[in-house]
Amino acid sequence: MKCFAGLDVSLKEISMCVVDDEGNVVFRRSLPFCPLAVRDALDG
Q1: What is the pLDDT along the chain (44 residues), one digit of tens a residue?
Q2: Domain that holds residue 30
Q3: 16: how many CB neighbours lie within 10 A of its CB?
């Protein structure tokens, strides 16, 4: 299954949404503005 991630980046937080190849939301979360938080969210 292919997945696609969209990021909305601001100075305070990053909103992340991952959808599958049919457009179904697999994951949605607001994260602190930190690249490591994005990495950890995608790993976990």
Answers
A1: 899 999 999 999 999 999 999 999 999 999 999 989 989 988 86
A2: 3-43
A3: 19
